[in-house]
């Protein structure tokens, strides 16, 4: 358990701030217009017309890093800013990318002080380095935090003002500087989304910026950048991706495209995650997990999530627990409760076939999720994670105010959420 408690930097900041955004604005985009919904019913009954958002170019596989550098070189850029975090700098990856870019003729500056949950200060400090060099492009290296910070920096570089000016949906007028997002974990998918979450520490909130203009120009998933990922982090981020797939597949906002992404993502995770966990240098497993987390990102970025994430957000906020681990513990229990919805029950049965079962049986899906957790030494229950029963009431209240629950197939009462917490605690 201690090893998982130390995995604190894995959460995509998007998830932590999305509740604040929707509880404040209660908005959804339809053809890039803002629609206000006063009830869950209205949200579900709004126009089904929606966008499908991914980067225009993505590179996958060993050698994708070099391919990206060649792509940048051929664009004839002269000055680049690398945005990363102290951990990536310490292992030398940002230095490696800097050298590759410089050998291609670029002048490179680095901002490597991004925090796990990037704040306004991080954005301003990075922007200062960018302006000093007059950078033409931004290269982010890391997980969700580095990419979010880079997106905010690139947006302010062209639009000006303060990052809080762009809180909401498509508030910017100009395209951000081109962003090349080099991913180092197979879980969050933040290298391919149009979301960026920035903390306002003065107001003690997280600002959600959902803007087409912050979608990276190129998303990079090179397994060679992940070979050194520790087993605990491999498990937590991989199970985060599995949660994205399953919640998107049973989501009330799913569609045939997100369904295809979710199911193929589950296939790859079933085939590769435990192998990557056991042998971090397994080239095929790491490569397949790159594809899996990206597919999961396409699914949830367009179909949203559910009560696993709604509850996990509260656990992370209360106890500073790793997001992927919370998802893994909660996932089978929430899906078991979702079976009271006939459509969700049928879909959970379909998932079973993608997790090795021989028949469509939702109970087999639940069993398979527990097997995944045991195989990678995920703590058995919330009790083992240090969650306190006396907090169940406020955790349930907050989960019901989290936007992710809006597309859950069952809209639980507070008592039902507490029951899920209790089941997850005592299992």
Tell me what the structure shows:
The model is unreliable at 8-46 (pLDDT under 50). The two termini are 15 Å apart. Helices cover 52% and strands 12% of the residues. It has two domains: 57-225, Rossmann fold; 231-426, Dehydroquinate synthase-like, alpha domain (Up-down Bundle), CATH 1.20.1090.10. The protein has 427 residues and is an alpha/beta fold. It has helices at residues 2-5, 13-25, 40-45, 64-74, 86-90, 93-103, 120-133, 144-159, 231-250, 256-278, 283-303, 307-319, 323-338, 342-354, 362-375, 392-400, 414-426, and strands at 27-30, 33-36, 57-60, 79-83, 107-111, 137-142, 168-169, 179-183, 195-200, 205-210, 218-221.
Proportion in helices: 40-55%
The overall average pLDDT, rounded, is: 87
The structural class is alpha/beta
Radius of gyration based on Cα positions: 20 Å
CATH evolutionary superfamily of the largest domain: Dehydroquinate synthase-like - alpha domain
